[in-house]
Amino acid sequence: WKGVGVRATKFIPRDTFIMEYVGEALDHKQFRRRAKQYSRNNVEHFYFMALSTDCYVDATNKGNISRFINHSCDPNSETQKWIVNGENRVGFFTKRDVRPMEELNFDYKYERYGQAAQKCYCGTALCRGWLGKEPTSDSG
After folding, report:
1. Each residue of 58-79: pLDDT tens digit?
2. How far apart are CA 56 and CA 111, in angstroms?
3. Which residue blocks in 5-111 are alpha helix, DSSP H?
């Protein structure tokens, strides 16, 4: 099923900053530990975003509403990585004009690492059917 989602409350022009993706910054070791902990505790909804190979943001417990932005195979928004005062940051920016009450979305560019494939529910004409590679593929 599709997640909660976030909708625009007003018209947002193309190339506009929407909000920052915030949460706890984790290195790779902390990320692996946290992912295992969530798995052991049967946490169904977790919100990780990779900033680099050794920097991840976990918005599960300390995030803002940006963690509820859903995936789309034909997104109206994208993430951009920035360095602000020496710290890595991720912001959401519109790729095109967004109408009032339109759902904000971005391409998760999801990669599987052995897990079961996740079905995509974006419903766009360009839907790939899966987040990442198809289930018959060896990797994400």
Report:
1. 999 999 999 999 999 999 999 9
2. 14
3. 28-40
